[in-house]
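One such shown below:
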Amino acid sequence: MDKTELIAEIIRHLEDDLQVNIDAANEAREAAIHDESVPETQYDTLGLEASYLAHGQSKRVQELEMNLADYRSMPVRIFDQDTPVGLSALVTLEKSQDEQKHLFIGVAGGGVQINTDGILVTVITPDAPMGRALVGQFCGDTVTLPQGEYEIVEIC
């Protein structure tokens, strides 16, 4: 599996998410300043609610822009069987012969799932519980996750 292509897919996913959030922030901003949002009574809070929503959406846009910048500048390390799991590692875990998990340790975007080469890869961050359990571990180590115990069978 090509990590460079995997990272490009993660970036495309984050760019799509960014565009959705930019559109939502613009809509909320427009709603906040629209003539119909002017309060008619002290209990009419439509404009206020829209401004809070616009602020929250704008913060999410800033966060996604930082995440994209982090991915674009993230060094892609090459791992082997003697290198501990770290940032930019693609880790294959195995619970049994039939159950494998493929995880990418990324700077952001935890929970994003990318299907590449017919394999589903889940992005996790080093700060997430799963990431904390994996970082520093080696191939052949057993890690305990909420879903049970897994053996690290490959790091690349």
